[in-house]
Amino acid sequence: MTLTAFAQRLIDAVGADSVLTCADDIAPWLADWRGMYRGCAQAVVRPRSTEDVARILALCQSTATPVVPRGGNTGLCGGATPDKSAHNVVLSLDRMNAVRSLDTIANTLVAEAGCILEDLQRTARDANRLLPLSLAAEGSCQLGGNLATNAGGVNVVRYGMTRELVLGVEAVLPNGEILHGLRTLRKDNTGYDLKQLLIGSEGTLGVITAAALRLYAPTPVRQVVIAAVTSPRQALELYELLFAECGPRMQAFEFFTGECVDLVMAHVPGVRAPFGERHPGYVLVELADTADEQALGALLERVIETAIERDLCADAVVSSTLAQVEEMWKLREEISEAQRADGPHLKHDISLPIESIPAFMTSAEARVRGVCPQVRPFIFGHFGDGNLHYNLSRPAGAPADFMARQGEAITAEVLDEVARFGGSISAEHGIGQLKRDYFVKYKSPLELRLMREIKAVFDPAGIMNPGKLI
Known about the structure:
The chain has 16 helices and 17 strands. By secondary structure, it is α+β, with helices and mostly antiparallel strands. Helix 1 packs antiparallel against helix 3 and helix 9 crosses helix 12.
């Protein structure tokens, strides 16, 4: 195969072993994992260092070549998939996967963007520390993607989103300049916080190559309870009680409907129903602490007894072993896989003021059923931080392309209701390609203008991740 002049310049810059140009080699890098998007590229580049990334971006800017940064390809919005332009270059940081330092006095970890999240969790654990970022894709997602999308996950109630765990970043700007910001200071009030512009920017401003992360004391003592609730309102009241009584020990507060449990039971082998009878909704709560398992268990049992006495839940079961903890979590974590087995569905990753969730669920369902009375809602999410995965499946017996034909009308009803309640159309998945039109619709003109002006400062040539976000 004859190389193009540009491909040869890439090879000259970073070496032949870091550049893929054969169509068969490039093909696996051109689609998202859900198969919703497929694009084109003239090359895939896999640098080994920040200096390599700098050389690649400088070359791309000088030739007006679009660059699409790609992490572990676990995103749900097509943010790491190139568009149809044959000139694209896909930039993967999977070879940049070193832990540069770990400090158990300052409780910091400095790692490169290609590190797998689960590996970083393990590294922290081996040093008797906790990296609390945890999400379903942690076995394959990369730190760079977590940073680029400001990933959430199950521990946001206690530790916050990804951006709240980051002390500093190293990044390469589109012109090849390296931003050396890997400071591990907890306090630094010296002007604009540039790292926060890069976190959540979905690769549209530059490429984050490494980050300094906050670590915490490990919380090996865990207690989980699944409580049956009659309504989202009851779940909200239970949340208020648990927050008041358990404080910072509450690590997760998850909600899922009875329909979600039905779906998991139908499609996932080896999962047991939490109670003898079906309930309209369920709450999964995890408490974690540094020591004294007996005291933590006693606290949780006391609070649950209070909840039952106050009619804040219909029934509850508290874990007594680690195996039970994992079994309870499996019921929640397998919902997405069960939906995949059920067939095509609409995903709405939304956030709302927590106190508005019950009212939103009532009004949104009325609006959705006004468009399609037989649609099947499967609603679950991180109730404790206001994040719902408001997912909808086609009516029973409907053809597989039902949502492809009806989805836009249904989504319009859901997102209009989100806006009415002062919520967000993207809680933790980002914008990517999937939500770009909705992003423009629901963001204020001033916010959009400021974001475009920031984009122009960082990326005046417009080469970074075209077609995404803005």
